Amino acid sequence: MHAYRIAEKLHIRRILCPLAAGVASTIGLLVAPLKVDLVHSRVWRLNEIDWAALNRLYADLENRARAILKPMGEAGAQLTLSRFADMRYVGQGHTIVVPLPLGELSAAMQDEIETQFEAVYQQLYGRSLPGVAIEGITWRLTALGQGIALDMAQAQTTSEQAGAAQRGQRAIYLPEAQAYVDVPVYNRYALRAGMQIDGPAILEERESTVVIGQRGRGTVDQAGNLTVMLD
Questions:
Q1: Band of residue 24 on the pLDDT scale cut at 50, 70, 90
Q2: Is-contact 218 212, C-beta < 8 A?
Q3: DSSP 40
Q4: How far apart are CA 36 and CA 69, in angstroms?
């Protein structure tokens, strides 16, 4: 509703108004992949880890994740698994999240895990602490299911004029005219790809309202998005 005037003040010439902008987060929720994050806290210094116990811990987390997502049907049938650990130098009060390899973990991987910890620590703080022991505090598993492919494409581009989608007129205040002016009101759902709307105009939909000022011209794309260009 306010995008046009804000763009005008900021000298922005192009505005993108997505279809159903008021419920975009809801659409994202419905199509996003299923996800489960599981954690288990147990303090181990890297050179003292019971690797068999750690493997059992991750096997249990994986089984729990599959049990949670299995009832979700096809979206929860094929999972992408990731492992992480909250780790720190012994004596520190804070931890960092370090990726861990999948598969069977063993003492042979200790150097690899230490190297990964040092790399993350270096990236975050610009230094490391050679010779200081490292410990794991919390062991994490993320299970990611399948998302839903969303096709927002509409019908083929039309040669119809936008007037076919007009539902009436309404008086709005135009600063340029310093007066109330009757402007066309369009049904957003009746617009088709390729239609153009010259401002001033109003586009109504259930979730939002688009206002195009006098210097604007809107064009509808294949996904129903409206691109407004300011002269």
A1: confident
A2: yes
A3: E
A4: 8
Instruction: State the distance between the two ends of the chain, measured CA to CA, in whole angstroms.
Output: 19
Question: Rounded to an integer, what distance in angstroms lies between the CA atom of residue 178 and that of residue 74?
Answer: 58
Per residue in 33-57, pLDDT tens?
Answer: 889 999 999 999 999 999 999 999 9
Conformation bin of residue 224: beta by default, left when phi > 0, alpha when psi is -120 to 50: left
Name the nearest CA neighbour of 95 among 128, 126, 137: 137
The CA-based diameter of the chain, rounded to the nearest angstrom, is 78
From residue 210, give the alpha-carbon distance in Å to each of 47, 67, 178, 200.
Answer: 61, 45, 20, 11
Q: 3-class DSSP state for residue 7?
A: helix
pLDDT in tens, 159-188: 667 777 889 999 999 988 899 999 999 999
Query: Are 136 and 43 contacting, i.e. CB atoms less than 8 angstroms apart?
Result: yes
Structure tokens at 9: 């003040």
Q: How confident is the model over 131-161, as pLDDT tens digits?
A: 899 999 999 999 998 877 777 666 556 666 7
Q: Can you tell me the distance from the alpha carbon of 78 to that of 59, in angstroms, rounded to the nearest whole number? A: 17
Show the CA angle centred on residue 57, arms to residues 67 and 50, nearest 5°.
170
